[in-house]
Amino acid sequence: MNNNSLKISGSNLKKRLKAERRFRYYGIFAISLALIFVLILFTNIISKGYSAFYRTLIAVNIEFNDEINLESIKEMSDEEIKQIDLYSFTKKNIYANFPEIEKKSDKKKIIKLFSIEFEEDVKKYIISNKKNIDNKNQVFLTASDDIDQIHKGNYSRSIPEERRRVSNFQLSIYDKLVNQNRVKFEFNVPFFTRGDSREAELAGLGGSLIGSFFTMILVLLLSFPFGLFGAIYLEEFSRKNRFTDFIEININNLAAVPSIVFGLLGLGILLNTFELPRSTALVGGITLSLMTLPTIIIATRASLRSVPPSIREGALAVGASKVQTVMHHVVPLALPGSITGTIIGIARALGETAPLLLIGMVAFIVDIPGSPVDPSTSLPVQAYLWNDSAERGYEEKTSAAIIILLGFLILFNLIAVIIRRKFETKW
Asked: What is the pLDDT of residues 166-211, one digit of tens each?
């Protein structure tokens, strides 16, 4: 080889090395850019939603008098206490905490510092402290949405009074309570145990969490066995002909169909034809199962296809039947991939909104569902509903619902990765 050939070869080698370095840098840049956008997204959501996980309480001195027989209350059951009318009694005690306020209009403004369910807070206090309750008690009542947002720093006090929902008089009372250490934060347990509400400070995710749970259980029970056995039949037992080719083409097409089409299917068949109850986890579960089924079938078939032919041939060689070969040898080896595909499909179904909107799960549901046939909503639909509300308190709760939804999706994908790595067989 002469010198010119060596120079040309060296020059080509340098070009290839430079091209490889550029390609590597492009890849690093693309991944870094994606991570930056993900970080911005998570930072934005978390910064807006973390405050929904705690709530503002205001301490009020409650004094039992002749109107409320303390001894009789101690003997009552919890259900009986819940039936007592303490609304006027609680209002009088709230007014008594501000003896300097005499105008009726000012007293109405004071009441608006608290949630409309301040009576329920007093009842809960009585139930929790029934045996140790005294004539004079300090009870923490839930603050209204506006005061809650002010105390969290989400509501600017510099806005002119005519454009604020909180007057200067109410702000002065709030400042006085803060200086007296009568305003505090508490972890927002009702956010996870209550249903939806027209009042932002009382709205919770309890109903949507239970609704999503029922829906996902139905998706798992319906889509996994049908998807698994459908994939086994198509991959291991069916003959290759026009009919099976037609089925395979349609399964692949259904996996790419927009989710809203499945919502139309649920609306037209499940609700209008079979007249199943509207806005229930039952209809939502069946609809999302139909959407998830093609994904599970495709993932399971890929897992079955990855099992080496030698496994099948060895089982058949020792006398196993076709069914025994598939069910005792092939399916167990392909099961980790099938489960991974199922979990990813369920994770996708958990985040779906469009199909559920069409089947009526967008309804305003206050009560927490007790079964799949009770009216309910789901986590993403609840976030959608809150996002349409005007109150500032719903903005933080929308972000908080998205945080929880993302947490579940990350958990599902993490479980899928762990299962795949733990049970995957290297051939």
From this structure: 899 999 999 999 999 999 999 999 999 999 998 999 999 999 999 9
Q: Report how far Cα 184 is from the mean position of its chain's Cα atoms.
A: 27
Residue (of 239, 117, 98) closest to 182 by Cα position? 98
Residues 6+ apart with CB under 8 A from 187: 53, 54
Q: DSSP letters of 148-172?
A: HHHHHT-S-TTS-GGG-SS-HHHHH
Confidence (pTM): 0.88
Residues 416 and 282 both lie in one domain: yes
Range of the domain at 378: 206-423
Residue type, 85: D
Sign of CA dihedral 299, 305, 306, 307: positive
pLDDT value of position 6: 62
Q: Is residue 374 part of a domain?
A: yes
Helix (H) or strand (E) holding 139: strand 136-142
Cα–Cα distance between 326 and 320 in angstroms, integer?
Answer: 9
